[in-house]
Amino acid sequence: MGCIRNDNLPAGGPIAEVIVDVPVLGADKPYDYRIPPDLSGQVQPGSRVAVPFGPRKVQGYVINIKGKETHQGQLKHIEAVLDDQPPLTEELLALSEWMSEKYVCFRSTAIQAMLPSALKARTTKEVIESPSGEKQVVYEISDNVTARRVSYVTLLKEAKDVQRLLQELPKQALKQRAILGYLLEHEGKVMLTELLQACQASRSSVQSLQEKGIVTIATEEVERDPYAGRSFAKTDPLPLTPAQKEVFGHIIKAIEKEQFQTYLLHGVTGSGKTEVYLQAIAHVLKKGKEAIVLVPEISLTPQMVERFKGRFGDQVAVVYSRLSVGERYDTWRKIRNGQAKIVIGARSALFAPFERLGLIIIDEEHESSYKQEENPRYHARDVAIFRGQYHQAPVILGSATPSLESYARARKNVYTLLSLKERVHGRALPKVEVVDMRQELQSGNRTLFSRHLYQKIEERLEQKEQMVLFINRRGFSTFVMCRDCGFVLQCPHCDISLTYHKVNHTCRCHYCGHTERQLMRCPNCQSEHIRFFGTGTQKVEEALAQTFPGIRVIRMDVDTTRRKGAHEKLLHAFGQHKADCLLGTQMIAKGLDFDNVTLVGVIAADSMLHLPDFRAAERTFQLLTQVSGRAGRRQKPGEVVIQTYTPDHYSIQCASQHDYHTFYEQEMRYRFQKGYPPFYYLSLLLFSHPDLTYCIKAAEEAANWLKPRLSKQSQVLGPVAAPIPKIKDRYRYQCMIKYKNESQLSRLLMELLHYMQPHIAKYHLQLQIDMEPQVI
Ligand code: ADP
Ligand code: ZN
Ligand code: ZN
Predict the structure, then answer these.
(1) Is the C-beta atom of 270 inside 6 A of ligand 1?
(2) Stretch 409-421: mean pLDDT, rounded?
(3) Where does Zn(2+) 1 bind (predicted)?
(4) Beta-strand relationship, 357-363 and 316-319
(5) Each residue of 484-503: b (16+ CB within 10 Å) or e?
(6) DSSP conformation class of 238
(7) Which atom of ligand 1 is nearest to the CA of 278?
(8) Does the model's pTM come out above 0.80?
(9) Is the dihedral of CA 741, 744, 750, 753 positive or negative?
(10) Is 581 annotated as a binding residue?
(11) Ligand 1 atom 23: the closest Cα is on which residue?
């Protein structure tokens, strides 16, 4: 295996420490490799390299270069350097070490999170025999995606000389004539494929022109930019309001002093936070530095992108999940080589390989999507603070509804609190009305719309104003039940009921995708009285059409926005007033800023409140506040109608009064009584296995190992069945660790992983460690 070329290297020479991209317990430590003399200039800390590892050749990352080792006679050597420039900076290397310790994950997994997928090792299905006879997965080096190169044909002669040449060419050289003619028409430079097609010519015709020194064929790199060819109207900074000025002043001071500081910017919806971000970034650019702006994926709307591109043009790189692998790779290189100065994107944009970072902004900092729910299970807030400290740059956490954790930290002066209490230029926050749906029911209204909301919708239709209707399908999905015996149709692989999809008359599991045909008879009692309960977007759409004949509705949910660009198209159509009503799930709760929207309706505010999650009230409050914020953002005042079965709940009451502080106080009391964050930390261990008894036994074994190793004040709760006790035919049990101060916890949990290794490797137990679970 490998090449023999370097096997007789003279001893001496430097050694590289390499993390191999093989995420297996035990392989996750640095290995020493010799650096052959012909690569010595290229191998640097942060380089991605190909190295032999056992019988395989894998990719790895150089984390350090050190001097001679005595035993280096036995060392293998680096076989190749895979990129022109090391993809990882020294800072990112340090960050990966910190992440692997803090979140108990492999160093290679942390590094993977930082790189565009084009550079990640691919796992293939192909298997090889390992020395011990076991079949193993091969981790292949990623060399499949590279820059896109295109061949161009360029005319080397002046136009008048070409005219003369055309006369000199033999009559039968029709193709060569056509080629020269086409080149003349197109300013002397055309893509080769285009030229051949336009002139119906073959490559050899171009080659013979090249041999005569008339044209040249050369390949050039073409950037894959999803925004190429789009123009954005240039915007100028707005004169700041006094409140904005004050906030801006604080941030500028920190930028000037190159001082790390975390600010919590608490500003009501429409208070001008984004304008402050834009002007702070302009300041950072003037100092020759770079900025990262994180927004939740769902609020990465065309409107948001337009605001940044409109102010800063091509210096802005946009990073989000819908980029193709190639687009992502090109965007990443634009950042790495310094062409882009500002990155705006979802969670992973936080790893932009900037070297002169001057500012990090996390907008809507309370969003749960800032927590990654797969390894490495990091929270963007913590990573941003690491980077801010490293670069001595300020970090701004912005929100109209800060997370309890962040607000509590601001109260304790761990973060600096800045606030914008009013909307720009005194525009009013919308008037919110809470409608008690129990009373509606008592007075005989069984429809989805209260009389109040019905009337408001009618008014809007008459006045030709627009509305946004919000329905949260997540916690209240339609389920299928037999009215005679109460049988509920469930997924055979997961402990969860199936959701009815009307379009194709199927019942689907939202966890594993299992699908069944629409039920005609109850499998339990053969009754035909099957009913579909709950409310989803599709059902509301249907009800709207029946109740308000002629209403034009744009529905936005996962089903209507699956295709690339669909999201933008729908929003654009709504902005053009092609519909009266925008109906959707969470994805419409944020970032939208439409002139003509004067009514926001929440069909069922309780749907999130009753989820088995200690953050349910906080999420409900945040969501209702965000949704309400979509109304009346410009000149026209807005109105909000919230329908609910629990009108007195404090999260609903406080949201309707735009009262963050009362909500905060009340929720903090509840968290204190129950011993939840931010008063205690929680970490979660999740065990899963196809066999229930085995799963419970393994979880108990782990809990018993852990308990005596924790300090007395800490608790291990469980093991108990997880909220969804079975997914994809695997049973799930969990332990919760509750603690105030447990500085060695990460290290202990890594030890636990090693201790449980026999179960994991031999018996396929899965053990997930989540240091800061967002959903419990
Ligand atoms: P937020 O990010 O807090 O929701 P935005 O920055 O989007 O607030 O501002 C809300 C609206 O007010 C936007 O339409 C924005 O263009 C406008 N706006 C913001 N700052 C100013 C200002 N200083 N003068 C005039 N209009 C402003
Ligand atoms: Zn039945
Ligand atoms: Zn399922």
Answers:
(1) yes
(2) 96
(3) 482, 485, 522, 525
(4) unpaired
(5) eeebebbbebbbbbbbbbee
(6) P
(7) 6
(8) yes
(9) negative
(10) no
(11) 240
Whose CA is closest to 468, among 624, 622, 653? 624
271 CB near ligand 1 (under 6 Å): yes
Residue-wise pLDDT for 593-612, tens only, equals 777 888 999 998 887 777 76
Distance CA 43, CA 63 (A): 10
Decide which of 41 and 120 is more confident.
41
Helix or strand (DSSP H, E) at 295: none
Is 491 labelled as part of a ligand binding site? yes
CA dist 424 and 735 (Å) reads: 47
Q: Is 735 labeled as ligand-binding?
A: no
Taken in order 628, 629, 633, 637, the sign of the CA dihedral is positive
Give the 3-state secondary structure of 517-568.
Answer: ECCCCCCCCCCCCEEEECCCHHHHHHHHHHHCCCCCEEEECCCCCCCCCHHH
User: What is the phi/psi pair of residue 664, to 5°?
Assistant: -55, -50
Measured between alpha carbons, how far is 353 from 171 in angstroms, rounded to an integer? 58
Kindly tell me the sign of the dihedral angle through the C-alpha atoms of 137, 138, 139, 145: negative
pLDDT digits (tens, 9 = 90+) for 442-478: 888 888 899 999 999 999 999 999 999 998 764 334 6
Per 3-state DSSP, the chain is made up of helix, strand and coil in percentages (nearest 5) of: 35, 25, 40
- Four-point Cα dihedral 436, 442, 444, 447, nearest 10: 40
User: Which atom of ligand 1 approaches the CA of 267 most closely?
Assistant: 3
Ligand 1, atom 24: nearest CA belongs to which residue? 238
ipTM value of the model?
Answer: 0.96
CA distance 562 to 541: 18
Distance of CA 347 to the CA centre of its chain: 4
Is the alpha carbon torsion for 561, 567, 570, 574 positive or negative? positive
